[in-house]
Every structure is written in C-alpha cells, then in structure tokens.
Amino acid sequence: MDNEIHTVLGASGAIGFAIIKALQNKNLSIRAVSKHPMQGVKWVYANLMDTVLTQKAIQGSGYVYLCVGLPYDSAIWASQWPVIMKNVINACEKSNAVLIFFDNVYMYDPYYLPSSFDENTPQYTLTKKGITRKQISDMIMDAIRQEKIKAVIGRSADFYGPFAKNSPFYISFLERMLLDKNPYFLGSPDKKHTYSYTLDNGRALVLLALDSSTYGEVWHLPTRKAITIEQIIEIFNGILKKNYKIKIIFPIERKLLSLFSKTIKEASEMNYQFEHDYIMVSDKFKNHFPDFHITPYELGIKEMIKSFCKKNTNR
C-alpha cells in the first residue's frame, strides 16, 4: 500500500502542514484536502460536513489522515465533530482506506492526571470538549471492532510548532511578544506540562500509518520531558533576545475576563490541565519506534517563532 494516495484532511492547518512535510520526505503520493487552495501539492476542496464531498475527497485513497482543526468552541465541536467523523469513517469504509486520526487527551479522567498518564488511563470527563472528543474517539474504536475500517489513533499533548496558531505557546503568548507585549498565562507557573512538537507529530503519524501492527490501537505521540511555563519563557526570551515577564491570570481574574473574552471562556473549562503537573507518557510509541528523534524544545520554539516572523514579514 506504500504507493497509494495519502489523503490529508485539514491539510492547511499546522498538523496538516507537518503531515504533508513528513510524506514529502518519504516521496509518497499526497492529496491535500481543505476549504482553501494550497500550492505545491495536489489539492482537493471538501467540506467534511457534506457526505458526498467527503466521499469524493477520500475516494481512491490508501491512507486518510484526519487532522481537522475546528474553531475552539464547545458548541461547534458538539454539532460538527460527530458528523465529520461519521462521514470520514463511511468514506474510508467505501474506499478501503486506513484512517489515521490526530486526537487530543481531553477525554481522560482529571482525577488521574496529577500523576503521569498513558493510553490506559480511565476516560471520564464532564467538560463539554472532553465529552465530544471521547464520543468521536469511541466512534472510531467501534468501527474498528465492527471491522468496518482499519484505523489508528495518535493522541497529542498540547502542541506547538510552525504556524500553530491554536498552540498555548501562541495564544496570549508569542502573539503578544511579537507586538512587544508581555505574555499572559492561565495556569500555575511552577507546574510541569507536557507539549508535543507539530513536526514530530507529523512524522509520528506517518510512521503509525505505514506500520500495520499499530492499527486498532491508541498511541500517545512522542514528547520530551514535561516543562514549566517559566522554563518556556526563558527559551522564548533567549531566542528573541528579550526579557518578557509572564502575567499570571488567576482564577478570580479568569472568571471576570471570561465575561468579555470568548477565547478565555472556552479555555477555562480545560484549565485543570495547567493547575497541577500534567505529564503525558509516550513510552509505548518510543519503545515501538526506538530510533525516533524527538525535537528539543529550543529548536522547536525557534522554528515556531521563525514561521510567524516570516508570515508577518510577508504581509
């Protein structure tokens, strides 16, 4: 199946970019699917809420990467994600394509999260976004059990990297630094948190796709050790040659600001992830792919900064 088409749904996003780069490095046949034209790669328009357009976009594919990024809005997630997942699963079944789903970790039970967590951590959540993520992940696992499709799920920690506007390293952070303003943070500054680099995610997802022994399972995508936001700002300051200070937004302030900022309101329900150590274990992947090189934070953050500085220069 190595010569068949690798179709990337959500190709214009940061993870789509990373997957395409990984596929290009392996000289594999690529079909980029998004709502807006893309240059340098074969591109197909599709609205994944539409059954027919989804089937046309996937038809003839050997592998389908689902890495769509919907607006960070719990109501949009609840209404659109199940429809998109159903359409993609059905289209993969018709085309006999392997589905590779780029997932997050919102479905895990917060009770278990102060200690490190892996793929076997119990799933239970009362957050709106977490409920939706569990629902669509379960849809894939049900389709696998029913032998409708072959699929693999790659779960990422909060990610950062080139063009990653939905990254916690960008929102209220790098975006403010590029305006020469101090960043702010909606969590505890001394707590450790795990992050994934987008280009590592892209390479990892392609490896999972090409290794049929990984199918039918959930894999935590590879990460380096957890790091505090204070350590992160040191890296940013070192690269930017600045001395920015972090403004910590405490819970009382957060509640007030959420009345005026939808971004903060939407982020608030997930903020438990930043109020204690949040350490995602990816040993399963590392043991299966022992030669995989994980990008150091310093290099990944440097590439992220470069991508946004270049983007701003081109405007």
Automatic annotation (TrEMBL):
<feature type="domain" description="NAD-dependent epimerase/dehydratase">
    <location>
        <begin position="8"/>
        <end position="211"/>
    </location>
</feature>
<dbReference type="InterPro" id="IPR036291">
    <property type="entry name" value="NAD(P)-bd_dom_sf"/>
</dbReference>
<dbReference type="Pfam" id="PF01370">
    <property type="entry name" value="Epimerase"/>
</dbReference>
<dbReference type="InterPro" id="IPR001509">
    <property type="entry name" value="Epimerase_deHydtase"/>
</dbReference>
<protein>
    <recommendedName>
        <fullName>NAD-dependent epimerase/dehydratase domain-containing protein</fullName>
    </recommendedName>
</protein>
